[in-house]
Known about the structure:
alpha/beta
Amino acid sequence: MELFPPEIEIIRKRVKRLSLKVRAEDERIICTIPWFVTKADTLAFIEKNRPWIEKQKQKIRQLRSMHIHREPGSILYMGESYRVVTVPNATNPGIVNHEEKIIISSINVDDLSQRKEWYRLQAYEVLPPLIHESAKQHGFAFKKISIKHQKSKWGSCSIDGSLNFNIKMLLTPDYVIEYLIIHELAHTREFHHGDKFWQLVEECCPNYLEAEKYLRTIGRILEM
Ligand SMILES: [Zn+2]
């Protein structure tokens, strides 16, 4: 049994290379390594990436001070922390009270897979009406919507006008959600990222730069 410092959690997997992550919940360093990498090599890898790790920790603390951080018993929703009251015979996703920042649902919110399921069901409920409304308001036409858990992309639009959105967008504030929707809708008219595309985005969503900034900074470290 190899012993690592308590701030490090090692996951041995069939992977080709070592990778690192700082978990937002407890700031532990999660290091995924291939089966045959030694403890010494793992520690050297972590040391080499120490500046990056410290930067991540700073970001996590910043988010926490802004309350963009999930505490036990709560869930991050639209850029804010909502306390979840678990009622076994409530439904999932349940009832969201925006004024009180309380969600009444059947889920155990401290279980990641149950949280993911909550986001999935909530996304199916709230996103399609927003997308339809935005398309109508700005005169865009699209073929269909799909909403999924995705690793990296916030959204995409295919050449035939099918829109694809990442469930994770529910973690971002409403103005960011609005921008993400406009961004993909705008691709139904301008299928590129050239000047004409950004002009169109700006017409429909004047504060899009603020949303872009959020996605580049906070958006990168948001966790379900
Ligand atoms: Zn795009």
